[in-house]
Amino acid sequence: MQPTQADIMQYVLEPLNLKVTAKIRSLYDCQLRLMHNIQPLPSGTDIANTVKYFSQTLLSVLKDVPRSPLEMLRDADNDPDRMSLYPNLDYKGLFNAISQLVDAAPHLQYGIQGD
Q1: pTM for this one?
Q2: For residues 2-20, b (16+ Cβ closer than 10 Å) or e, as one string?
Q3: Hey, how many other C-beta atoms are within 10 angstroms of the C-beta on 89?
Q4: Short name of one Pfam family for this protein (predicted)?
């Protein structure tokens, strides 16, 4: 049995999955340290760099999709094939971590200063 393109893509992106999971844990850690005033508090710069990492990573994932899934949206039978084009990252965990971090943002002591 030949591996499918989706199987190959998941194998290639496995290191990315591990990095994303670690970065999500980092966001949760930042949020907990901010909310409970655990030292050292994360800086706004640290959090901004982590969010920038996710932005760049997700954009690169979209660029790496081999064909446009818009053509596949017309028929629900194509959903498994369409979803297999994207890496299996913890999107729900990322959303939850960023949502909680936004709630904790007022607790930031210092960070990127506007010019």
Answers
A1: 0.63
A2: eeeebeebbeebeebeeeb
A3: 19
A4: UNC-79
